[in-house]
Fold this protein.
Amino acid sequence: MGDETIYGANVGTHRVIDALTTLAFDYPRRAAYFESELESLLIMARQEGLDPSKPVGSFAGAMGLGQFMPSSFLKYAVDFDGNGRVDLWDPEDAIGSIAHYFASFGWKSGEPVVAHARVMGLEAESLKSGFDTRYTFEDLAARGIRPEGRAAMDGEVSFLVLSTLQGNDYRIGYPNFYVITRYNHSTYYAMAVYELGQ
């Protein structure tokens, strides 16, 4: 919520139905996607007993404190406060829905998200990096890359290189880091979410 809407301070001002209709019928490159989202909005409105012209959100049709697209609403939104309605503009439902989204993509409570990496040698500079890379700890260690302060885990991790004013910042992304990128496919986005969470 912090990354998407500054904790609800900016949920958008566009009527979602207008945004989706415009993009569905006047943006040929992604028309099929936005037509599907428009259909999901109408289904959502019927299920929730809402006037489909009332929800407001981003210029792309994302809604609520967590900026769910209508299809994500249908798949992941939950009535976390138990009042019989799903309201993504309500903090409890929004937090519960974001948690449900993460859980659906494999979030493991109590597991690490990301760790600083100690890099020895020059091989890291030529190694492919990003949230979608997959390495074992043995692969990384053989290239002079080790996590700082965390024990290695079984399974695969990502090697992350973040460009900063002070130079490259090397990190190891655990499976929970990858889960964050299901919300937005960006290493920097996931780091911002993680750091806000800290």
User: Anything to note?
Assistant: The first helix runs from residue 2 to 5. Residues 76 and 104 are 8 Å apart (CA to CA). The chain has nine helices and six strands. Strands lie at 14-15, 56-57, 114-119, 145-147, 158-164, 167-173.
